[in-house]
Amino acid sequence: LTTLTMTTPFSPPLYMQRYQFVIDYVKTYRPKKVIDFGCAECCLLKKLKFHRNGIQLLVGVDINSVVLLKRMHMLAPLISDYLQPSDGPLTIELYQGSVTEREPCTRGFDLVTCVELIEHLELVEVASFSEVVFGYMSPGAVIVSTPNVEFNPLLPGLRGFRNYDHKFEWTRAEFQTWAHKVCRDYGYSVHFTGVGEAVGHWREVGFCTQIAVFQRNFHGSMSNAERLEPSVYRLMYKVVYPSLSDNNIYQRTLVNEVLYEAQHLRQEWLSRMNMDSNNNAHFCAPPLMDVFQHGVEGGTCDWQPVYQQGGTICVPLACVWSSPRVRALCGSMQRLREELLVDSRVRMSADGTVLNLPADDDDDDEEEVEEEEDVKAVSGVANNVEEDWDRELGCYGNV
Q1: pLDDT at position 29, please?
Q2: What stretch of H or E contains 213?
Q3: Helix (H, G, I), strand (E, B) or coil at 365
Q4: Which of these, 66, 81, 285, 303, is most buried using a 10 Å CB contact count?
Q5: Strands 234-240 and 207-216
């Protein structure tokens, strides 16, 4: 094998296959609390925030504070996160620290990922790594990936280790020996797999990246005594994403949806009126028909179209209820009415069945100015945050 090399690069690049492996695991098992050790440029964290699948706390830890400071803002919420908040909460935290140190805030996680990390430790530190991650932290699951040194002869032009900072690279037997010892010592089971498979008869060397997936054999809560230990990590960044679990955000999102739908119906009615010489003309959007055929909330609904009363356009709440988004947010007409009655931005009839909107467009101009200011404020928070799915991170350091 030493005289043969693979000339075909991995597609997609191997680092992306490793990230996708973690994403697929998260999609399947839906851990709520995930911590990534050796997060470096936060690329995996960035992908996971777009593939949350139930993640509520996403933590990254790296020894290099300079890299964290440089890359942390890529984890900030986007404008869309504010305009369409997610159903569940999400908090992202970045810490400077070492995986060989005991840190109270790292306990109680559902999933720990160590993607191409362990080979950057000195061999004498591996035992400390094992004790901290599997013994002290005791997470529900751990994913560890590392280069398979048996694959190295197939990589063209490679001499020695794949990265100058690698302190060692294991064979499959060495990796599995370490993993089985971890299972015996700390009560885990392990499954071996990998990414970057060779073709043809070269498959006998195994995957380019070997992966061990550990699952804890026992379930139950940990003692809170050790949580009182002093913190040794340094918090570099923390952001709480907007979500509907926050009552204030939920209220604002719901009212925005209601006002958007009501304004849409109002504008449609005004447009029809401009084309119709009959001042008694009424309008109701076609999508409402299906809702009213089935009744509101499974019951009957008294039909009432949009109409004008003096300088006010009156939009029945039942018309707004026809919006799928409004129904998804509220769940019941009663709750919708209760939420709107306590919001100062909404003008309703005394009986709470009709939304009152101004017939004059001048008031709309003022509202648009306020909305533009809100968007500018949000864009200031999420400035320059873009997805970059295809950037290669390096040469063999990512193999």
Answers
A1: 97
A2: strand 207-216
A3: helix
A4: 81
A5: unpaired
Nearest CA among 332, 340, 138 for reference residue 219: 138
Tell me which residue of 256, 148, 251, 258 sits closest to 192, measured CA to CA.
148
Task: Choose the final residue of a domain: 197, 215, 244.
Answer: 244
Token pair in block for residue 59: 């933590």
Which neighbouring-strand residues pair with 35?
59, 112
Backbone angles phi, psi at 196, to 5 degrees: 80, 70
Could you tell me the pLDDT band of residue 277, with boundaries at 50, 70 and 90?
low
Residue 102 CA to residue 97 CA, distance in Å, equals 10
Residues ≥6 apart with Cβ < 8 Å to 174: none
Q: Are 93 and 235 in contact (CB under 8 A)?
A: yes
CB atoms within 10 A of CB 215: 14
What's the one-letter identity of residue 96?
Q
Same domain, 207 and 299: no
Among residues 213, 244, 275, which one ends one of the domains? Answer: 244
Instruction: Name the range with the highest mean pLDDT among 221-230, 317-326, 373-382.
Output: 317-326
Q: How far apart are CA 354 and CA 313, in angstroms?
A: 10
